[in-house]
Structure formats: C-alpha cells, structure tokens
C-alpha cells in the first residue's frame, strides 16, 4: 500500500489481511512515523516509496491525497505495478488521462476504488435496472452525505475541492452504471454554507442529463453534524414507468453511540471493501482488467469538474466540452 492519507486505507488494509491469494507485505509512506505505525499495526514491512517501486510487489493500493494520485499512479505504472487507486481518480482531466495512458503503456491494470458498486442493496437495484423491472427509467435522485472530514480534505491544494469532489464521484459512477449511459449536461449550485471558515465547498446540488434522456440530481454535501458517522450515507431513488425503487446503500448497520467515542455505524453482511478488493485480486490473477476501470474514474471526475465550472458560469455545461 502506498500512503495512508485517506481513511479508507485502514479498511483496505484490514481486508487485504483476510483476502485469499493476496498478502499485504509492504506499506510505504513519505511520513516515516505513520509508515512505521501502520506497518506494525498490519504486520507489514515499512518501506520508502522508492523501495516499494523497486520491489517485486505485483500490485499497489494508492491512498494518498487526491492531487497526488496522478504522480503516484504513474510511478507505479512505470515500475510495472497494477494499481487500485482511491477515489477520486484524479482532480484534473489531464491527470486522469496521464494515469490511464501510463498504465496502458506499461501493460498494467488500473482500477478506481468505487466501493459503492459492491453494496448489496446497490447491486440489487442495478440488477433490477438491467433486468427491466423498473420499465423505462425517467429520473434519479441520489445523495452522498457525511461530516466535514477536516485535515487535508479541507485544503484545496491537496483535495482539489471540497464536498463536491469528495462525495460526487461515488454517486456519479453509480448513475452511469445503473443507466448504462453517459452524462451530457451538468448544472450545479455549489457553496460554503455550513462551515464558514473552510477554503473549500461544503455543499452543493447537481442536476445531470444523460444521453438516454434521464435526469438526475446529486446532493454530495458535508451536511451531517460532527457526532455523525463520517461515512456510510448513500441513497439512490430510481423512478421508472413500472416501478420506483429507493435504495439505502448502507442500510445494513448497527448504530452505536458510545460514551466517549463518536457515533458509528457497524455494518453487517457482505463487506463492499472485501468484494471490491477480491474482484481486483481475481482480475490480476487472471490477467484481466478489473471490473471498475481508470476510465470509470475519469468519467466521474469529468462530472465533478463540469459541476464546478457550471457553478462558476451559472449555466449548464457539457462534460465533453471540458479541456484538460
């Protein structure tokens, strides 16, 4: 694993320790103290990034800060390593294209960590869409809410933006997957309303039109209070001619309120992280592209960038018109 800057790295490391046919052997980080701490916690070696790239490790999970993904993924590709990159894949189109091209040129696979595709309720809704159970789909309403994570997530130079870049990508990917269609127009209202001292946005509302005529809205706001669980509030409502389905992606939870600890959701049932990493490992073993690609990551990034540009221009924009 390369970096534990993103909190999802902790779950991925836990999962790797239990994944058949895979072993977490090395943790590399530019922060030596963090590297040693995480390596001791997960029973791995603590190396520098250079040592990791020069090793015989086959695949690397990149969980660095958003704006550093591109350089890290390109370095991994040039070292001949397959890569699972934390979302968002990139914060610019140019970086996303550079990552995809580097992996293709090196003959290695690139996957984006869109774990929401593996949530059991989400997957069942996808099956209903694919099976025609909803009839013709007219509209979609989706949310990805959470607390303001603080730290580098609130620094534009490292995060690339705020709530909109942090939370939109998961849901934008789900909508493309559900609808089997690409966004053609994005209109967004983006602001900083809840945490006035931030340098990045903390709320927004996106309206997206797809090639197949479906309209969708996404609310990606950091609108939950500080005591709320930081992750696990993804909902999707699909309106069709024959049925409407409302999905709570993380509905299978125990809600725990501790005396001295923040509230948390303890998920039961299949782990989306375990299913995603299992698919990634299986694909590498078979010499196949993992189900979620770098291109999927780039498409979601394009929606985010179109949203920011739309909010600035106060008019709808076409993601395809954005330039690197």
UniProtKB/TrEMBL annotation:
Transmembrane segments: none annotated. Residues 16-113 form the Gfo/Idh/MocA-like oxidoreductase N-terminal domain. It holds the Pfam family GFO_IDH_MocA. Residues 122-245 form the GFO/IDH/MocA-like oxidoreductase domain. InterPro entries: Gfo/Idh/MocA-like_OxRdtase_N, Gfo/Idh/MocA_Oxidoreductases, GFO_IDH_MocA-like_dom, NAD(P)-bd_dom_sf. One of its GO terms (molecular function) is nucleotide binding. This is Dehydrogenase. It comes from candidate division KD3-62 bacterium DG_56.
